[in-house]
């Protein structure tokens, strides 16, 4: 028979898993903003590994299901923030590439004029 202490321990272990995941998600966003691509790659690999572990977490009580839902909602917000950060970086890079291309074309035009 499962005791309240057992359930508390399981909830605590699930919370610890999600808190670590959230911490790494925040570090991922910081790495994206710093444009440190090796760190981004490392955090993404870690994230994929952890996502594979989600199904092994206990979820057989109402309290555990609530903990999962609460943290998954928070993680969805963080994931959207990470996606938005990546999109901003991509747009910045695209703009820099366009400007560089335009600058090269203008330099060639002046050179050939």
What does this structure look like?
This protein has 113 residues and is an all-alpha fold. Helices cover 88% and strands 0% of the residues. It has three helices and no strands. Helix 1 (4-34) packs antiparallel against helix 2 and helix 1 packs parallel to helix 3. The longest helix is centred in the C-terminal third of the chain and has 51 residues, at 62-112. 9% of the residues are buried.
What's the oligomerization state? single chain
- Rg result: 22 Å
The residue ranges in which pLDDT falls below 50 over 5 or more consecutive positions are none
Quantity of strands, as a count: 0
Proportion of β residues? Answer: under 5%
Helix/strand class: mainly alpha
Shape: rod-shaped
Write the layout of secondary structure elements.
Layout: H1 4-34, H2 37-53, H3 62-112
Helix pairs in contact: 1-2, 1-3
Features of the shown structure:
113 residues, single chain, 0% strand
Brief account:
The chain is mainly alpha-helical. The chain has helices at residues 4-34, 37-53, 62-112.
């Amino acid at each position: 028979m499962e005791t309240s202490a057992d359930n508390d321990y399981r909830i605590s272990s699930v919370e610890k898993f999600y808190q670590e995941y959230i911490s790494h998600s925040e570090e991922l966003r910081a790495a994206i903003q710093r444009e440190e691509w090796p760190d981004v790659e490392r955090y993404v690999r870690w994230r994929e590994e952890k996502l594979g572990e989600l199904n092994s977490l206990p979820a057989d009580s109402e309290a555990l299901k609530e903990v999962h839902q609460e943290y998954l909602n928070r993680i969805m917000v963080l994931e959207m923030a990470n996606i938005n950060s990546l999109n901003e970086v991509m747009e910045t890079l695209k703009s820099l590439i366009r400007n560089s291309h335009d600058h090269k074309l203008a330099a060639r035009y002046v050179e050939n004029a």
